[in-house]
Each structure stands twice: as C-alpha cells, then as structure tokens.
Amino acid sequence: MMDEPREPRRDHLREAAETMRAVRDRCVWTRRIDHADLVPYLQEEAAELVDAVEAGTRADLKEELGDLLWQVLFHAEIASRDETDPFDIDDVAAALAEKMIRRHPHVFGAAVATTPDEVLIHWNAAKAAEKRTRTSVLDGVSMHMPSLALAQKMLGKAAQVGVTPPPPPPTPSPADEAELGEALLALVAQAREAGWDAERALRQRLRALAEDVRAAESR
C-alpha cells in the first residue's frame, strides 16, 4: 500500500510577509508610517520581548517574538517601496544568511573551533574583514542602547585600545548578580535622594569615555 502524499508545509513566514503587504496597502494608518515613526514601537516591542524572556511564559515569549518579527516585516515593506534604493524582506533575509555563513566558517567552511573562545576568534576575524572602513572601535556602537548595556559594551571597546576608567571609591564587592542589582539600586536611590539624574550621569560619563577612546586611537 502506497503512502499517501503529504501536504506541503505552509510557509508561515511568507504568509506573514504577505499579510504585512496587504496591511500596508489597505490600512490608512499603516500607509502613512515611515521608518522613523516606527522607532518607538520597535523599542517597545524589544523591551516587551526582554520581559517575556526574563519573566514571562512560553506563550508570552512566542507572542512577543511575533510582535518583534512584525516590526522587521514592517520596516522591510516600507523599504521595498523606496524610490531610490528599494529592498524587501527577501533581500534582508539573503544578506543575513550570507553574513552568518561568513561568520561561522567552523560550521560552513574548513575552519575548526572546539571551544567558545575559538568561535569568537573566527567571528571577530570575519566581522573585522567586513568592517574594514571603520576607523574606531566605537563605530557601530549605538548610543541609543540602554545606558547600562551601553556602559558594558563601551568598557569592552575601551579595553581594546588600553583605556581603563579609574577605579571607583572602595565599596563592598558584590558576590553575584543579585548583590550587584542591590548595589546598583542603592546607587540610584542615592542619586534620587540627592536630586541627581542617574541616567544622565551615566550617559555623560560614557560620552567622556568615548572621547578618551578616540583620543587613544589618534595617538
């Protein structure tokens, strides 16, 4: 007895892209939105995805991943209608696949990586080859990142050029991330008590760190 032929699996990603195209064509609100208009929604959806990862259910995670995917599809659909340099979601996906294949030569090529550190060596080498036109380790670092994430990123970049911020005043050393969270919250509470803006204070210090990094690179 011959097996019955299986129905072809639905291409749900393609359906989502086609749904986005239809919405762009037929929804009067969506038709007037441009890339800049979408930025607050992109930030909000990314933040909600973080919440789902850290404290949500599996259903929350699936939903928020979908909401973030919708933002990607939205931007790609807007880009596809650009008069001077159009590209669509297929172009985005193709460029992503090509980049990830280049950055994983131990998976798709002859390179060997048996440890996470060796993987990073291949990744960084491929990334450096792609970004040859960059003149600073800070090129490509978005100043719109959340300030703490930006601080951690910039400290790593600064270390690459030998820039190390001076040590802070002696404080109890946190033993784990929970204690670190307590220490950070205590600092914010201290700032609030003094009438200081903790966010602005950190960003001002990061701008000074960026100047130190660029000065070190120009020597």
TrEMBL record:
<protein>
    <submittedName>
        <fullName>MazG family protein</fullName>
    </submittedName>
</protein>
<dbReference type="Pfam" id="PF03819">
    <property type="entry name" value="MazG"/>
</dbReference>
<feature type="domain" description="NTP pyrophosphohydrolase MazG-like">
    <location>
        <begin position="35"/>
        <end position="108"/>
    </location>
</feature>
<dbReference type="InterPro" id="IPR004518">
    <property type="entry name" value="MazG-like_dom"/>
</dbReference>
<dbReference type="InterPro" id="IPR048015">
    <property type="entry name" value="NTP-PPase_MazG-like_N"/>
</dbReference>
<dbReference type="InterPro" id="IPR011551">
    <property type="entry name" value="NTP_PyrPHydrolase_MazG"/>
</dbReference>
